[in-house]
Amino acid sequence: MLHVQPGSRLKTPCAEGLKMKTLITVTLAVVLAMANVLAKAAYSQEPVVLKGHTSRVLTVAWADDGKSLATASDDRSIRVWDSATGKQLADVPEITRAGYGSPVVVFTTDLKLVAVNYWGEITIRTLPDNRLLARIDPILDRGQKSAFRPDVFAMAFSPDGKRLATGGSTAAVGGRHGLPGGIVIVWDTESGEIVHQSNQLSTAASSVTWSRDGKLLVAGTSGAGGELQEAGEVWIWDAETRKPLHHFSVKPETKYGEWASAADVAISPDGKHVAVPVTAGSRGAPAGIVIEDTGAAVRVRELETGKDTEPVKGLKMAVQGIVFSPHGMQLATAGGDKVVRLWDVETGKQLAALTSPDRVEAVSFSPDGKFLAAGSRDGTVRIWVTPTTN
């Protein structure tokens, strides 16, 4: 016998079953719809395009929370974007005085600080309010006849933002064969004092970067030209002891020119691999991901063993920028051939080629590796869903 209280709702197995079936059907429909949207995004080659800069984009950097993106340009401005909507959040104009040459611009991982070098003078400012925190005038041997201001071609903040590494040349002081020597300096960002200085580099340092944990500092040098067959170099220091841990040369091949340059360097998230794009001779020389000495190329070296990855051809012009994915399994290269290429680190196999209307100057992965941003010579920034994202 069935007892029902007045005003209560009668529940039957049939009614409950129908309710559950409807709930499952609706939930499944929502899941399938979301999966369809994600699938379309993952396989789409159409990027989100950020427009605002009026000249080539020099630097692209994601905030460590992935919510925003900062870019710096030859138009002397910095812009901050919402990475989800593409909306511009901030515009910092006139980061340098008007003049000849391009600034060197780097950001801290939280995008709260920016360092700008222009003609040897370095300023550190807050974002987005552009408040000056420190000014570094890197004159070395001040007060002596040998005093000089080194050229600065590359900079990088340590992960905690407390140190700033600069790489360049000692233009006023001859290095090997009387050529300008290379120099790497680490500065305290608060005091502006020198923490570490290395003058061991044979030629100008064209790139510097830190490992994710801040324990390693890596630099790459440009090679010598003219009658000298000078190899580019890669140097790796222990950031705490300041002692060099690894050093290897990137030798030129005379078939493509008389010099070689380690134009940029990238270190894997676990600090075990270093990737180096190597340019020899003309920027239009043939290129590939290789082990040994070849024209323009990318070398991926395991630091513990000193071994390089398997050679793979595919690049048509010199690499302008290089970066490991956050999980370290892929490598992205920005090329003068207007293509961003994605590579498998272990096999050297090309995974994807993403085209841009102009030469790509900078490339950067989002912190979760799901997106890839690239800045171009035409002043635009493109954001793709990383093709290998599942």
Automatic annotation (TrEMBL):
> What UniProt keywords are attached to this protein's entry?
Repeat, WD repeat
UniProt-listed Gene3D superfamilies: YVTN repeat-like/Quinoprotein amine dehydrogenase
Give the InterPro entries listed for this entry. Answer: Quinoprotein_ADH-like_sf, WD40/YVTN_repeat-like_dom_sf, WD40_PAC1, WD40_repeat_CS, WD40_rpt
Q: Where are the WD repeats?
A: 50-91, 312-353, 353-390
SUPFAM superfamilies linked to this entry:
Quinoprotein alcohol dehydrogenase-like
Keyword check for Repeat: yes
Task: Report the PANTHER family cross-referenced here.
Answer: TRANSCRIPTION INITIATION FACTOR TFIID, TRANSCRIPTION INITIATION FACTOR TFIID SUBUNIT 5
Q: What is this protein called?
A: WD40 repeat domain-containing protein
Which organism does this sequence originate in?
A: Aeoliella straminimaris
